[in-house]
Model the fold of this input.
Amino acid sequence: MLSIINSSNLMGINSHLIKLEIDITYGIPSFNIVGLASTEIKESRERVKSAIINSGYKFPNSRIVVNLSPADMKKEGSFLDLGISIGILREFIKKDNKYLEESMFIGELSLDGNLQKVKGILSIIIGAKENKIKRVFIPSDNLLESLFVEDINIIPIKSLKQCIDYLNGDLDINKESILKNIKLDADKIQDNIYDEDFSDVSGNYFVKRSAEIAAAGNHNLLMIGPPGSGKTMIAKRIRTILPDINKEEMLEVSKIYSSIGMIDNKKGIIDRRPFRNPHHTSTKQAMIGGGIDAKPGEVVLSHRGVLFLDEIAEFDKKILETLRQPIEDKVINISRIKYNYQYPCNFLLVGAMNPCPCGYYMSETECRCKTFEIDRYINKISGPLLDRFDLFVEVNSIPYKEFSNNISESSYDIKNRVEKAREIQKYRFKDYDINTNDEMNSSMINKYCKLNQESIDTIELIFNKYKLSNRSYTKLLKVARTIADLDGEEDLNSNHIMEAFSFRKSYYKYFK
Done:
């Protein structure tokens, strides 16, 4: 007897349809799994056998061969247990082959026949929908995570016995009431309330303006200043002024987090823009991703959010250099012997650093560092990496008077201006596959960064005096375009150019 059951395999953050071909024939009793199965899949033989017996069914005393098709694709994870069991117990199932062809079975079995939660269910269901699968049987613990994919029937089950009873019409899973109760909670997930707010930040108005511009155009920001001046405080509040994450972005980010089991069980989806703050001792693999299973790193986990590198000069220089390509391309490729994994990593990079090892160079407190120590510290960040930053800003300690008269804009007020600027960009780039000014290419810059004669004279003077690189020049125009959007201006003027350049002066002060 041959049965063919649909299941899935996760590779990176994308799923692939797997056909489970289960052949039960006469012969010496055996149970073999072929088709590039990983260790955890080969071990499923024992889980499946015990689960079938403990669910009250008789395990066939026959020769069983399970082929995982396509045979040249590496299969990993514990997703296939339920599908293999359904194929072995095909004779106990009343549904016809057409029904099973339109169904997919996902789940890891315990020895008692209960189903355990699996990682990556969101990617699997999205992949099933793309493969025209009509219904997916999943562990009930994964139900909340699967609610956000529409136009596909999700059937939550708790055990192998319950699955077969449902297929035979002996059990009615009251999915509607389960979904109704969960949706009541799911509708409340995005309350947009953060513990941090820009109203907490006293003074440093120039720095807060740079944060607003960075959020409006998705421009990378580097803050330089002595310890305790507020760099980290400001960085942690940047995500509070970013536009709310939309549904498409939610699914993009949630696929990444689902694949490594980092979805909040109470929400089932990532409903806010990520904020990742890796320690400076993080390894290259932790930052970029990799390993045997090509696990995504911090740059991927910060997709559609903020990657904050505090004490950026303390990071290993080789690790910092690996950031250059993902910052520019918005994707990262991790290659293995047979496969290439591509992950999205469109993030806002925010860096913070002291100007020297002791932290007080060019501040009101006396610096204890030697000149060569300062040079060595600053040179930890290479020129090509610095070229990836759009905004450079100096953060200084503020006087007591600014603390005592703390009247500061809230994140809500700043966010409203950022959202208006983003709406302008969304309309501008409606015919392109980009969303923000930071993503403009050369032809778009020529089209959307129109300069009058005064602006041309201003930027030519800056270009010649400071010997801007091509990348620095285009970034200056992109920042000016964002400033114009915040001001509601269609064309750039010299004021926009000068303000954009004012956020590069710290670069020449410290790095030139």
Q: What stands out?
A: Residues 2-186 form a domain with the Ribosomal Protein S5; domain 2 fold (CATH 3.30.230.10). The mean pLDDT is 92. The longest strand covers residues 14-25. The chain has 24 helices and 18 strands.
